[in-house]
Amino acid sequence: MTEHTADSTSPDEVLSRIGHMTRALHENLRGLGLDKLIEKAASDIPDARDRLDYVARLSEGAAKRVLDATDTAGPLQDGIDARAADLTRSWQALLAAPARADGADAEWRALAERTMAGLAESRDAANATKGHLMDIMMAQDFQDLTGQVIKRITGIAQNLEKQLVQVLVDFAPSEIKRELDNGLLNGPQINPEGQSDVVADQGQVDDLLDSLGF
Amino acid sequence: MADPKMRFLVVDDFSTMRRIVKNLLKELGYSNVDEAEDGVQALAKLRSEQFDFVVSDWNMPNMDGLTMLQNIRADPALAKLPVLMVTAEAKKENIIAAAQAGANGYVVKPFTAATLDEKLNKIFEKMEKAA
């Protein structure tokens, strides 16, 4: 039953009906003043994109600064650890000599023990700090993840904008259309990251108009 | 642990992630690490220099990680090179596609140093058994 209906409807007829529906929709939109709203929505998108780019750029800059700092701080902690280990060995060698019977060296021996305990604490703290630096570094992976999401949203916004502008180009009064068409010569193919309130070449516009039966 | 002189290629379009992976590898004892920004650059490096291991992102411009992996497996000179995917693509079909294309491991971002260490060691173990 359904198949029979589908067979008896020619593709041309479908296209022509969609064309009429589109035209009717367009006239209704204009009647309601919605074409102005669409124009506004389309013109707001580049601004939204710029703002997202700004977020992406600043996040990347911040992540880079953090990584630069952790890259510098890591070796500093390694240096503290190595020097403390070296001093500990020297003190241990001195203390290995037998203590004097008269106890005259007792004072510096006690100080040496305290120094060694302090050095051990320094080494522990340096290693713990290295661990925290690793955590700080790992946390910067947010930039890769949020960056991918922002790229994606920027892409969606760009598509939406293209479609909205296409609607305006296709249905705008002829004098505005000429204006918009001129803009298309500098279209997004040349610099897709830049202005894309300009969408397609005339060929694409014609193709779309053709497909809608205009 | 495998040979610490092992040469790694880290492929990711985000420089932050390349640095993080590079630093993690260094922390795990592998300091011989080079970087590439996308699959095209990575393949050029792999074909002109000697590498022992590839850690790659999936979603990259010019050539994505999966296509790069397929190219590696199709090239007799590179076919046996171990490739670990480190990517935000977390769909089952992604993981299956990577496995079918011959990935040796799959790590989903965000990941921890421990996860990377574990996956690397798993691959090294399998390689030793196969050798």
UniProtKB/TrEMBL annotation, chain B:
Keyword Transferase attributed: no
Pfam family name, one: Response_reg
Residues recorded with modification 4-aspartylphosphate: 57
SUPFAM superfamilies: CheY-like
Keywords (A to Z) from UniProt: Phosphoprotein
Residues of the Response regulatory domain: 7-124
Cleavable signal peptide: none
PANTHER family the record matches: CHEMOTAXIS TWO-COMPONENT RESPONSE REGULATOR (PTHR44591:SF25), STRESS RESPONSE REGULATOR PROTEIN 1 (PTHR44591)
NCBIfam families linked to this entry: PRK10610.1 (NF007901)
Name of the protein: Chemotaxis response regulator CheY
Organism field: Massilia pinisoli
